[in-house]
Design the sequence.
């Protein structure tokens, strides 16, 4: 149908606009807070949906009597009551469009050239799913295939010479009835868990947390498109670590010191208690400004990573968000402790403009 073609063309235009403005969406965080369960609402400038414009009342013309050739349906300008001078630039029209998480992830993958992830280990769950595989002559009335039934009746009447094009009445009989058939299939489901860890000590300001919030949205979006099931856990830490919900994760600020080992210890405990290595794809991501309490605690962090986190993880990502109060030392310590460890990805994020580069670093390995 023409309307389907028009809708497809409009969706194609929308997709192009999103790709064109993707960098701005990522760095500015414009679409955050508009995420629904399955869709995201995105503001797109310079897109207008065609619509009729009604003329003004009491102006006569078409619709209120006999019109004449050349009558303007809607005047180009009408004297108004507003104050101020007229501008010379066109107004920017903004349209909010909804796009599914899957579509957004696909656009992200295309623009950043992200490889698809190959889940490791065995699958955790098998879901029962009914698949309609064919059409039979017998079956319950609830599964009658009306289109196939009509076609069978039409063919029978034409073959018998009983079909009258001037009075096209098609009446199915018992032998014309067709029914959908199905079989039960077991579909493997790959499951993944993201464990976000963030330093919430006094040196991590609101801008640093906003960068983490933006980046985590896009990491969630991509991984959700790669796995059938995705869970997210949140750990905050200063001198001690605690598991929190999403809102608390992004809105908590403490003033104490920093002991990163407390967070790694809690992360290892969560993995051991809730996520079996062979059944889950595990992605810890730690964001910090690089400060730690002492060299002894840094050594404890490396031991915890080696023994309790890395062996069970697909990948461990460390993002260092630049802060005027942070030393930035921890990323150097990780690089020295794990110079050839493929599971560790280190990323420096000095500002919002570096978020795209960081996302590519974290997700570009295809693990």
Sequence:
């Amino acid at each position: 149908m023409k309307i389907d073609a028009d809708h497809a063309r409009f969706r194609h235009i929308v997709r192009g606009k999103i790709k064109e403005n993707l960098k701005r969406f990522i760095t500015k965080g414009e679409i955050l807070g508009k995420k629904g369960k399955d869709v995201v609402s995105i503001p797109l400038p310079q897109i207008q949906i065609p619509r009729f414009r009604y003329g003004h009342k009491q102006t006569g013309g078409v619709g209120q009597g006999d019109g004449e050739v050349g009558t303007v349906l809607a005047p180009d300008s009408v004297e108004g009551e507003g104050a101020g001078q007229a501008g010379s630039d066109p107004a920017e029209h903004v349209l909010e469009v909804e796009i599914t998480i899957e579509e957004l992830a696909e656009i992200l993958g295309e623009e950043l050239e992200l490889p698809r992830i190959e889940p490791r280990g065995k699958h955790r769950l098998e879901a029962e799913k009914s698949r309609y595989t064919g059409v039979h002559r017998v079956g319950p009335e609830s599964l009658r295939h009306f289109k196939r039934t009509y076609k069978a009746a039409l063919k029978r009447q034409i073959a018998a010479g009983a079909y009258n094009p001037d009075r096209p009445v098609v009446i199915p009989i018992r032998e014309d009835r067709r029914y959908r058939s199905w079989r039960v299939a077991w579909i493997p489901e790959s499951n993944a868990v993201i464990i976000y860890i963030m330093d919430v000590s006094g040196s991590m300001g609101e801008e640093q947390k906003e960068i983490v919030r933006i980046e985590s949205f896009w990491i969630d979006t991509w991984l959700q498109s790669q796995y059938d099931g995705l869970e997210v856990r949140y750990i905050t830490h200063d001198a001690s670590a605690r598991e929190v919900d999403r809102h608390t994760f992004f809105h908590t600020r403490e003033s104490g010191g920093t002991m990163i080992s407390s967070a790694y210890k809690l992360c290892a405990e969560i993995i051991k208690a809730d996520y079996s290595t062979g059944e889950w794809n595990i992605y810890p991501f730690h964001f910090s400004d690089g400060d730690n309490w002492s060299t002894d605690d840094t050594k404890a962090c490396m031991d915890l990573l080696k023994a309790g986190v890395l062996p069970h993880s697909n990948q461990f990502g460390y993002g260092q968000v630049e802060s005027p109060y942070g030393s930035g030392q921890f990323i150097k310590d990780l690089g020295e402790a794990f110079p050839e460890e493929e599971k560790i990805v280190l990323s420096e994020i000095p500002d919002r403009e570096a978020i795209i580069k960081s996302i590519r670093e974290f997700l570009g390995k295809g693990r």
